[in-house]
Protein backbone atom coordinates (compact mmCIF):
# COMPACT_ATOMS: atom_id res chain seq x y z
CA UNK A 1 0.00 0.00 0.00
CA UNK A 2 1.32 3.37 -0.95
CA UNK A 3 1.11 5.52 2.14
CA UNK A 4 1.91 8.76 0.30
CA UNK A 5 -1.06 8.24 -1.97
CA UNK A 6 -3.38 7.30 0.88
CA UNK A 7 -2.22 10.38 2.76
CA UNK A 8 -2.99 12.68 -0.16
CA UNK A 9 -6.33 10.93 -0.75
CA UNK A 10 -7.27 11.48 2.88
CA UNK A 11 -6.24 15.11 2.78
CA UNK A 12 -8.28 15.64 -0.38
CA UNK A 13 -11.35 13.93 1.08
CA UNK A 14 -11.25 15.49 4.55
CA UNK A 15 -10.43 19.17 4.21
CA UNK A 16 -8.30 20.74 6.89
CA UNK A 17 -6.87 17.55 8.30
CA UNK A 18 -3.22 16.96 8.99
CA UNK A 19 -1.93 13.43 8.47
CA UNK A 20 1.66 12.51 9.26
CA UNK A 21 3.54 9.46 8.14
CA UNK A 22 5.32 7.74 11.04
CA UNK A 23 8.33 5.96 9.60
CA UNK A 24 9.23 2.54 10.93
CA UNK A 25 12.97 2.11 10.58
CA UNK A 26 13.04 -1.65 11.10
CA UNK A 27 13.47 -4.13 8.21
CA UNK A 28 9.72 -4.72 8.12
CA UNK A 29 9.29 -1.06 7.20
CA UNK A 30 5.69 -1.01 8.30
CA UNK A 31 5.04 2.72 8.26
CA UNK A 32 1.90 4.15 9.74
CA UNK A 33 -0.34 7.21 9.60
CA UNK A 34 -0.61 9.49 12.59
CA UNK A 35 -4.03 11.13 12.76
CA UNK A 36 -5.24 14.23 14.52
CA UNK A 37 -8.02 13.55 16.95
CA UNK A 38 -10.40 16.22 15.57
CA UNK A 39 -10.63 14.49 12.20
CA UNK A 40 -10.15 10.84 13.11
CA UNK A 41 -13.79 9.96 12.74
CA UNK A 42 -14.20 11.42 9.23
CA UNK A 43 -10.91 9.91 8.11
CA UNK A 44 -11.93 6.47 9.38
CA UNK A 45 -15.27 6.79 7.63
CA UNK A 46 -13.49 7.73 4.42
CA UNK A 47 -11.09 4.77 4.68
CA UNK A 48 -13.99 2.41 5.14
CA UNK A 49 -16.24 3.84 2.42
CA UNK A 50 -13.72 4.73 -0.26
CA UNK A 51 -14.24 2.48 -3.27
CA UNK A 52 -10.52 2.08 -3.87
CA UNK A 53 -9.37 1.41 -0.30
CA UNK A 54 -12.50 -0.09 1.23
CA UNK A 55 -10.83 -1.03 4.53
CA UNK A 56 -13.74 -3.00 5.93
CA UNK A 57 -11.90 -5.01 8.60
CA UNK A 58 -10.08 -3.81 11.71
CA UNK A 59 -8.03 -6.80 12.78
CA UNK A 60 -6.15 -5.44 15.72
CA UNK A 61 -6.13 -2.49 18.09
CA UNK A 62 -3.36 -2.09 20.59
CA UNK A 63 -1.90 0.49 22.92
CA UNK A 64 1.57 1.89 23.45
CA UNK A 65 2.84 3.86 26.43
CA UNK A 66 5.51 6.42 25.67
CA UNK A 67 7.14 7.84 28.76
CA UNK A 68 8.33 11.41 29.14
CA UNK A 69 11.69 11.65 27.43
CA UNK A 70 14.66 13.76 28.38
CA UNK A 71 17.25 14.52 25.75
CA UNK A 72 20.49 16.23 26.62
CA UNK A 73 22.81 17.96 24.17
CA UNK A 74 26.13 19.69 24.65
CA UNK A 75 26.12 23.37 23.76
CA UNK A 76 29.08 25.75 23.70
CA UNK A 77 28.36 29.04 25.45
CA UNK A 78 30.36 32.16 26.25
CA UNK A 79 30.66 32.56 29.97
CA UNK A 80 32.66 34.71 32.36
CA UNK A 81 35.07 32.49 34.26
CA UNK A 82 37.38 34.29 36.75
CA UNK A 83 36.76 37.58 34.99
CA UNK A 84 37.78 36.18 31.62
CA UNK A 85 35.28 35.34 28.96
CA UNK A 86 35.69 31.75 27.95
CA UNK A 87 33.91 29.20 25.85
CA UNK A 88 32.40 26.63 28.15
CA UNK A 89 30.53 23.45 27.30
CA UNK A 90 27.16 23.17 28.91
CA UNK A 91 24.66 20.34 28.89
CA UNK A 92 21.18 21.48 28.04
CA UNK A 93 18.30 19.18 28.81
CA UNK A 94 14.98 19.24 27.02
CA UNK A 95 11.97 17.37 28.32
CA UNK A 96 9.30 16.23 25.96
CA UNK A 97 6.09 14.97 27.53
CA UNK A 98 5.04 11.37 27.02
CA UNK A 99 1.76 10.20 25.59
CA UNK A 100 -0.39 7.14 25.17
CA UNK A 101 -0.99 5.78 21.73
CA UNK A 102 -3.69 3.61 20.16
CA UNK A 103 -2.68 1.68 17.05
CA UNK A 104 -5.21 0.25 14.59
CA UNK A 105 -4.45 -2.35 11.93
CA UNK A 106 -6.89 -2.20 9.01
CA UNK A 107 -7.40 -4.66 6.18
CA UNK A 108 -9.77 -4.93 3.26
CA UNK A 109 -11.51 -8.27 2.95
CA UNK A 110 -13.03 -7.32 -0.38
CA UNK A 111 -9.91 -5.85 -2.03
CA UNK A 112 -7.56 -8.28 -0.24
CA UNK A 113 -5.07 -5.66 0.81
CA UNK A 114 -3.63 -4.36 4.03
CA UNK A 115 -2.58 -3.72 6.64
CA UNK A 116 -2.89 0.01 6.93
CA UNK A 117 -1.65 1.12 10.34
CA UNK A 118 -3.30 4.12 12.00
CA UNK A 119 -2.10 5.82 15.17
CA UNK A 120 -3.80 8.21 17.55
CA UNK A 121 -2.00 9.92 20.39
CA UNK A 122 -3.25 11.49 23.61
CA UNK A 123 -2.04 14.87 24.78
CA UNK A 124 -0.20 13.47 27.78
CA UNK A 125 -0.18 10.48 30.11
CA UNK A 126 -2.02 11.94 33.07
CA UNK A 127 -5.14 14.04 32.59
CA UNK A 128 -5.75 14.47 28.88
CA UNK A 129 -6.07 10.83 27.94
CA UNK A 130 -9.21 10.88 25.80
CA UNK A 131 -9.35 9.63 22.24
CA UNK A 132 -12.31 9.20 19.91
CA UNK A 133 -13.47 5.60 19.70
CA UNK A 134 -13.53 3.92 16.30
CA UNK A 135 -15.94 1.19 17.46
CA UNK A 136 -18.91 2.89 15.70
CA UNK A 137 -17.03 2.36 12.43
CA UNK A 138 -15.31 -0.99 12.98
CA UNK A 139 -17.33 -3.08 15.41
CA UNK A 140 -14.39 -5.44 15.98
CA UNK A 141 -12.57 -2.67 17.85
CA UNK A 142 -15.03 -2.84 20.74
CA UNK A 143 -13.34 -5.42 22.98
CA UNK A 144 -9.84 -4.31 22.04
CA UNK A 145 -10.57 -0.71 22.93
CA UNK A 146 -11.95 -1.96 26.23
CA UNK A 147 -8.71 -3.84 26.74
CA UNK A 148 -6.67 -0.68 26.06
CA UNK A 149 -8.90 1.21 28.49
CA UNK A 150 -8.26 -1.51 31.06
CA UNK A 151 -4.51 -1.89 30.65
CA UNK A 152 -3.40 1.59 29.51
CA UNK A 153 -6.18 3.84 30.76
CA UNK A 154 -7.04 5.58 27.49
CA UNK A 155 -10.65 6.80 27.63
CA UNK A 156 -12.41 6.19 24.31
CA UNK A 157 -15.16 8.73 23.69
CA UNK A 158 -18.16 7.31 21.89
CA UNK A 159 -17.45 3.74 22.89
CA UNK A 160 -20.77 1.95 23.53
CA UNK A 161 -19.67 -0.01 26.61
CA UNK A 162 -16.41 1.19 28.10
CA UNK A 163 -15.72 -1.06 31.09
CA UNK A 164 -12.70 -3.03 32.22
CA UNK A 165 -12.48 -6.35 30.41
CA UNK A 166 -9.61 -8.29 32.04
CA UNK A 167 -9.16 -6.86 35.52
CA UNK A 168 -12.00 -6.44 38.01
CA UNK A 169 -14.06 -3.25 38.10
CA UNK A 170 -12.67 -2.15 41.49
CA UNK A 171 -9.10 -2.25 40.15
CA UNK A 172 -7.56 1.21 39.85
CA UNK A 173 -4.21 0.75 38.10
CA UNK A 174 -3.35 0.28 34.46
CA UNK A 175 -0.92 -2.66 34.40
CA UNK A 176 0.60 -2.16 30.95
CA UNK A 177 1.75 1.37 31.71
CA UNK A 178 5.48 1.50 32.15
CA UNK A 179 5.29 3.13 35.58
CA UNK A 180 2.91 0.50 36.94
CA UNK A 181 3.96 -0.88 40.32
CA UNK A 182 2.79 -4.45 40.74
CA UNK A 183 1.55 -5.76 44.09
CA UNK A 184 4.34 -7.17 46.20
CA UNK A 185 3.03 -10.70 46.59
CA UNK A 186 6.24 -12.22 45.38
CA UNK A 187 7.56 -15.39 46.95
CA UNK A 188 10.58 -17.68 46.74
CA UNK A 189 11.46 -19.04 43.31
CA UNK A 190 13.78 -22.04 42.82
CA UNK A 191 15.88 -20.79 39.90
CA UNK A 192 15.86 -17.00 39.96
CA UNK A 193 17.94 -14.89 37.62
CA UNK A 194 18.22 -11.25 36.49
CA UNK A 195 15.37 -9.09 37.76
CA UNK A 196 13.77 -12.09 39.44
CA UNK A 197 16.96 -12.79 41.40
CA UNK A 198 16.95 -9.21 42.71
CA UNK A 199 13.35 -9.61 43.80
CA UNK A 200 14.01 -12.96 45.41
CA UNK A 201 16.87 -11.46 47.47
CA UNK A 202 14.40 -8.98 48.98
CA UNK A 203 12.13 -11.75 50.17
CA UNK B 1 -6.64 -56.40 66.49
CA UNK B 2 -3.41 -58.24 65.90
CA UNK B 3 -2.64 -58.17 62.14
CA UNK B 4 -1.32 -61.72 62.20
CA UNK B 5 -4.51 -63.03 63.74
CA UNK B 6 -6.46 -61.04 61.19
CA UNK B 7 -4.47 -62.62 58.35
CA UNK B 8 -4.98 -66.07 59.81
CA UNK B 9 -8.71 -65.52 60.15
CA UNK B 10 -9.04 -64.24 56.58
CA UNK B 11 -7.20 -67.33 55.36
CA UNK B 12 -9.87 -69.36 57.12
CA UNK B 13 -12.59 -67.40 55.37
CA UNK B 14 -13.45 -65.05 58.21
CA UNK B 15 -13.36 -61.37 57.34
CA UNK B 16 -12.73 -59.01 60.22
CA UNK B 17 -12.67 -55.24 60.11
CA UNK B 18 -13.15 -52.21 62.26
CA UNK B 19 -15.80 -49.57 61.98
CA UNK B 20 -13.08 -47.03 61.15
CA UNK B 21 -11.74 -49.10 58.26
CA UNK B 22 -15.20 -49.76 56.89
CA UNK B 23 -16.16 -46.11 57.14
CA UNK B 24 -12.96 -44.90 55.48
CA UNK B 25 -13.21 -47.58 52.80
CA UNK B 26 -16.65 -46.30 51.93
CA UNK B 27 -15.49 -42.71 51.85
CA UNK B 28 -12.38 -43.27 49.79
CA UNK B 29 -14.10 -45.50 47.25
CA UNK B 30 -16.65 -42.95 46.14
CA UNK B 31 -15.09 -39.51 45.97
CA UNK B 32 -17.15 -37.23 43.79
CA UNK B 33 -15.15 -34.44 42.19
CA UNK B 34 -16.57 -31.05 41.34
CA UNK B 35 -16.94 -30.37 37.61
CA UNK B 36 -14.82 -27.36 36.89
CA UNK B 37 -11.63 -26.59 35.04
CA UNK B 38 -9.69 -23.36 34.93
CA UNK B 39 -7.15 -23.80 32.13
CA UNK B 40 -5.23 -26.37 30.10
CA UNK B 41 -4.84 -28.79 33.04
CA UNK B 42 -8.58 -29.30 32.79
CA UNK B 43 -8.04 -31.01 29.43
CA UNK B 44 -5.79 -33.57 31.12
CA UNK B 45 -8.35 -33.94 33.91
CA UNK B 46 -11.05 -34.63 31.30
CA UNK B 47 -8.76 -37.14 29.58
CA UNK B 48 -8.27 -38.88 32.94
CA UNK B 49 -11.99 -39.45 33.28
CA UNK B 50 -12.47 -40.76 29.75
CA UNK B 51 -12.19 -44.33 28.48
CA UNK B 52 -8.41 -44.53 28.04
CA UNK B 53 -7.42 -43.66 31.62
CA UNK B 54 -10.80 -44.19 33.27
CA UNK B 55 -10.82 -42.58 36.70
CA UNK B 56 -14.01 -44.58 37.32
CA UNK B 57 -11.82 -47.51 38.36
CA UNK B 58 -11.15 -45.59 41.57
CA UNK B 59 -14.75 -44.67 42.19
CA UNK B 60 -14.50 -41.05 41.09
CA UNK B 61 -16.34 -41.06 37.80
CA UNK B 62 -19.23 -38.90 38.88
CA UNK B 63 -18.23 -35.29 38.40
CA UNK B 64 -20.92 -33.23 40.07
CA UNK B 65 -21.86 -29.89 38.55
CA UNK B 66 -22.94 -28.57 41.97
CA UNK B 67 -20.59 -27.92 44.89
CA UNK B 68 -23.33 -29.13 47.25
CA UNK B 69 -22.95 -32.67 45.92
CA UNK B 70 -19.17 -32.79 45.50
CA UNK B 71 -16.47 -33.71 47.97
CA UNK B 72 -13.30 -33.26 45.94
CA UNK B 73 -12.17 -30.07 44.28
CA UNK B 74 -9.56 -30.54 41.57
CA UNK B 75 -8.06 -27.09 40.99
CA UNK B 76 -7.00 -27.74 37.41
CA UNK B 77 -5.23 -24.73 35.97
CA UNK B 78 -4.14 -21.15 36.45
CA UNK B 79 -6.05 -19.31 39.16
CA UNK B 80 -6.21 -15.69 38.14
CA UNK B 81 -6.84 -13.12 40.82
CA UNK B 82 -10.16 -12.36 39.18
CA UNK B 83 -11.19 -16.03 39.50
CA UNK B 84 -9.79 -16.71 43.00
CA UNK B 85 -12.83 -15.45 45.00
CA UNK B 86 -15.13 -17.69 42.97
CA UNK B 87 -12.91 -20.73 43.58
CA UNK B 88 -12.87 -20.08 47.34
CA UNK B 89 -16.62 -19.51 47.33
CA UNK B 90 -17.19 -22.85 45.55
CA UNK B 91 -14.97 -24.54 48.14
CA UNK B 92 -16.96 -22.97 50.95
CA UNK B 93 -20.18 -24.23 49.41
CA UNK B 94 -18.98 -27.85 49.41
CA UNK B 95 -20.16 -29.92 52.39
CA UNK B 96 -17.68 -31.71 54.66
CA UNK B 97 -15.79 -33.99 54.27
CA UNK B 98 -14.08 -32.20 51.40
CA UNK B 99 -10.65 -32.47 49.83
CA UNK B 100 -8.59 -30.41 47.39
CA UNK B 101 -6.10 -31.54 44.76
CA UNK B 102 -4.00 -28.68 43.34
CA UNK B 103 -3.23 -29.87 39.83
CA UNK B 104 -0.30 -28.48 37.88
CA UNK B 105 2.36 -25.84 38.32
CA UNK B 106 -0.10 -22.92 38.16
CA UNK B 107 -2.43 -24.18 40.86
CA UNK B 108 0.41 -24.94 43.26
CA UNK B 109 2.59 -21.86 42.73
CA UNK B 110 1.47 -19.71 39.80
CA UNK B 111 3.66 -21.72 37.45
CA UNK B 112 4.98 -19.91 34.39
CA UNK B 113 2.73 -16.96 35.30
CA UNK B 114 4.22 -16.59 38.79
CA UNK B 115 5.69 -13.20 37.94
CA UNK B 116 2.37 -11.87 36.70
CA UNK B 117 0.44 -9.18 38.55
CA UNK B 118 -2.85 -10.92 37.75
CA UNK B 119 -2.14 -14.51 38.78
CA UNK B 120 -2.58 -16.04 42.22
CA UNK B 121 0.67 -17.65 43.35
CA UNK B 122 -0.87 -20.91 44.48
CA UNK B 123 -4.41 -21.72 45.57
CA UNK B 124 -3.07 -22.81 48.99
CA UNK B 125 -3.02 -19.14 49.89
CA UNK B 126 -6.79 -19.33 50.36
CA UNK B 127 -7.87 -22.95 50.76
CA UNK B 128 -6.17 -25.98 52.36
CA UNK B 129 -4.72 -28.33 49.74
CA UNK B 130 -4.44 -32.07 50.41
CA UNK B 131 -2.37 -33.18 47.41
CA UNK B 132 -0.14 -31.10 45.12
CA UNK B 133 0.71 -32.41 41.64
CA UNK B 134 3.65 -30.77 39.86
CA UNK B 135 3.74 -30.73 36.06
CA UNK B 136 2.75 -28.47 33.22
CA UNK B 137 0.30 -30.00 32.65
CA UNK B 138 0.57 -33.22 34.69
CA UNK B 139 -0.19 -36.35 32.70
CA UNK B 140 -3.36 -38.32 33.52
CA UNK B 141 -1.17 -40.87 35.32
CA UNK B 142 -0.03 -38.09 37.65
CA UNK B 143 -3.60 -37.13 38.44
CA UNK B 144 -4.42 -40.78 39.14
CA UNK B 145 -1.35 -41.01 41.38
CA UNK B 146 -2.55 -37.94 43.26
CA UNK B 147 -5.96 -39.48 43.53
CA UNK B 148 -4.54 -42.71 44.96
CA UNK B 149 -2.46 -40.61 47.37
CA UNK B 150 -5.65 -38.90 48.49
CA UNK B 151 -7.38 -42.28 48.93
CA UNK B 152 -4.50 -43.47 51.09
CA UNK B 153 -4.79 -40.31 53.13
CA UNK B 154 -8.51 -40.87 53.65
CA UNK B 155 -7.94 -44.54 54.55
CA UNK B 156 -5.47 -43.72 57.31
CA UNK B 157 -7.54 -41.01 58.98
CA UNK B 158 -8.54 -41.80 62.56
CA UNK B 159 -12.10 -41.00 63.46
CA UNK B 160 -11.31 -39.99 67.03
CA UNK B 161 -8.46 -38.21 68.71
CA UNK B 162 -6.64 -35.00 67.97
CA UNK B 163 -5.77 -35.94 64.39
CA UNK B 164 -9.34 -36.78 63.40
CA UNK B 165 -10.53 -35.39 60.07
CA UNK B 166 -11.96 -31.92 59.94
CA UNK B 167 -15.55 -32.98 59.40
CA UNK B 168 -15.57 -34.84 62.72
CA UNK B 169 -14.09 -31.92 64.60
CA UNK B 170 -16.73 -29.29 65.34
CA UNK B 171 -14.05 -26.69 66.13
CA UNK B 172 -12.22 -27.04 62.83
CA UNK B 173 -13.16 -24.48 60.20
CA UNK B 174 -14.87 -25.67 57.04
CA UNK B 175 -15.16 -22.28 55.39
CA UNK B 176 -12.42 -19.81 54.66
CA UNK B 177 -12.47 -16.11 53.93
CA UNK B 178 -13.35 -15.19 50.38
CA UNK B 179 -10.92 -12.52 49.16
CA UNK B 180 -12.37 -9.27 47.90
CA UNK B 181 -11.38 -7.25 44.87
CA UNK B 182 -9.21 -4.39 46.07
CA UNK B 183 -7.88 -1.31 44.31
CA UNK B 184 -4.48 -2.87 43.62
CA UNK B 185 -4.67 -6.52 44.69
CA UNK B 186 -6.96 -9.03 46.36
CA UNK B 187 -7.88 -8.20 49.95
CA UNK B 188 -6.37 -9.95 51.85
CA UNK B 189 -3.57 -11.14 49.53
CA UNK B 190 -3.40 -14.44 51.44
CA UNK B 191 -5.16 -16.17 54.30
CA UNK B 192 -2.56 -16.02 57.06
CA UNK B 193 -4.27 -18.81 58.99
CA UNK B 194 -3.44 -21.16 56.12
CA UNK B 195 -0.30 -19.65 54.70
CA UNK B 196 2.56 -20.28 57.10
CA UNK B 197 5.61 -19.50 55.00
CA UNK B 198 7.22 -16.38 56.41
CA UNK B 199 9.31 -14.22 54.17
CA UNK B 200 12.56 -14.96 56.05
CA UNK B 201 12.33 -18.72 55.91
CA UNK B 202 12.84 -19.02 52.17
CA UNK B 203 16.40 -19.75 51.13
CA UNK B 204 18.34 -16.88 49.61
CA UNK B 205 20.45 -19.08 47.37
CA UNK B 206 18.90 -21.48 44.86
CA UNK B 207 19.14 -24.91 46.43
CA UNK B 208 19.56 -28.31 44.84
CA UNK B 209 16.91 -29.79 42.63
CA UNK B 210 15.43 -32.29 45.08
CA UNK B 211 14.48 -29.51 47.50
CA UNK B 212 12.45 -27.74 44.88
CA UNK B 213 9.84 -30.38 44.37
CA UNK B 214 6.53 -29.32 45.91
CA UNK B 215 5.75 -31.58 48.83
CA UNK B 216 3.02 -34.16 48.76
CA UNK B 217 1.03 -34.89 51.85
Instruction: Give the biggest beta sheet of chain B.
Output: 3 strands, parallel
Unreliable stretches of chain A (pLDDT < 50, length at least 5) are none
Would you identify the CATH H-level superfamily of the domain at 3-67 and 98-166 in chain A?
Answer: NADH:ubiquinone oxidoreductase Nqo5 subunit
Round the mean pLDDT of chain A to the nearest integer and report it.
Answer: 88
Number of E-state strands of chain B:
5
Overview features:
heterodimer; A: 203 residues; alpha/beta; Beta Polymerase, domain 2; 5-stranded mixed β-sheet; two-stranded antiparallel sheet; 9 strands; 20% helix; 33% strand; extended; B: 217 residues; 3-stranded parallel β-sheet; two-stranded antiparallel ribbon; 7 helices; 5 strands; disordered C terminus
Written overview of the protein:
The complex is a heterodimer of chains A (203) and B (217). Chain A is of the alpha/beta class and 203 residues long. Chain A has a domain at 3-67 and 98-166: NADH:ubiquinone oxidoreductase Nqo5 subunit (Beta Polymerase, domain 2, 2-Layer Sandwich), CATH 3.30.460.80. Helices cover 20% and strands 33% of the residues of chain A. Chain A is built from 4 helices and 9 strands. In chain A, strands 1-2-7-6-3 form a 5-stranded mixed β-sheet, with helices on one face. A two-stranded antiparallel ribbon of chain A has the order 4-5. In chain A, strand 4 (69-81) and strand 5 form a beta hairpin. The longest helix of chain A is centred in the N-terminal third of the chain and has 11 residues, at 3-13. Chain A is extended. With 217 residues, chain B is of the alpha/beta class. Chain B is 29% helix and 8% strand. Chain B contains 7 helices and 5 strands. In chain B, helix 2 (19-28) packs antiparallel against helix 6. Classes of the chains: A alpha/beta (203), B alpha/beta (217).
